[in-house]
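I have been asked to look over a protein record a colleague put together. What it holds is a sequence and that sequence's fold in token form. Please read both lines and tell me whether the tokens look consistent with the sequence. I do not need a full report, just your reasoning and any doubts. This is what I was given:
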Amino acid sequence: MLYLADDRKGTPGLTKILKDYKVALVQDWLTGMRGGEKVLETLCEMFPEAPIFTLLHNPGSVSAAIERHPIYKSFIDRLPLKSQRYRSYLPLFPTAVELFDFSDFDLIISTSHCVAKGIKTPPHSLHISYLHTPMRYVWDMYDEYFGPEKTGYFARKIIPFFANYLRMWDVTSSNRVDYFVANSRYVARRIQKYYRREATVIHPPVDTESFSPGAKQESFYLIVSALAPYKKIDLAIRVFNRRKTPLVIIGIGPEQKKLRRLADSHIRFLDWADEAVLRNHYAACRALIFPGVEDFGIVPLEAQSCGKPVVAFGKGGALETIVGYNGKNEGKCSGIFFPEQTETALNDALDLCENLRWDAKFIQQHAQKFSKQNFIQRMNRFISEKTELFEKGERSAP
């Protein structure tokens, strides 16, 4: 028997029905602590006895709160070079998740940005999928990953066939989900477009209590990001090369070597850092730079929890988490949006950022709306409501 974590602020708790449910959690993979893993970490706190099913797990790569749960891995975990090259096995992922056996579970909660939402569940179980994004590799960011400049001749010939299969599987498997939760309105619209399904928006948890304004501000700007193509870190580097302004980039990824070669000496790179190092950099920077399109984006809210403004591209989840400057709300905004992913647009936004007056207290208070406790309260209500409907024989219709 599993119990959801106690509700400390009076939110309606779980139904008696759910307290008798055996619960499983599903995650695409466990290879590092990014936004999706932070959602999983909170779900692990909410369901302290739930096992985790995942494609692969690199031990020690995620938090102790996740590592202490039983972790069941697919055959992908036994393949060569799985630790670093697991994305090369993408065509095998659907089969891998479909082989998991959930016959002993009543409630399955998947957190998915790739294939976790496509698990096969028995008729007696309820499947709620917390979706970070439809599979971006084969939908709206296909060219970012597999465009002509990203792949060789042979890959360009064969990848479209696999991508077509994955798109068909992605749509078909969406019908297996009883209820979708989207991490932003931006993602909910894409769920509707690609799957023709409705989704309830519950923003991810941000550990706002761990981040707070610091007394010291230095001259550098900050990027905290995986170094992947769609993150547009190269755009920021080109702008800061020209401005000669210090920039610190925290993160690793497939673009790391390329970006280091592009950057001048006043741009410094750090690998993924622990929370204390991140907190110190958030608190000391002038502003966070967020040049890509994200489905939600926890990093901008961590920076805002430290009272720091965000200079962000004006698209995607950032529009839901940042109060943008509109020409009249100086001191009552938490960032600046630039309208195009061009050097000129970002450079103009940085000029504006340096001339505006920022209110760290206002920025920090805005970030509190996205706290972990708010996430737990909303997930409590959602899961409780849907399990009651499920017990009555009602399911979300595809």
In short: The chain has two domains: 16-205+371-391, 208-369.
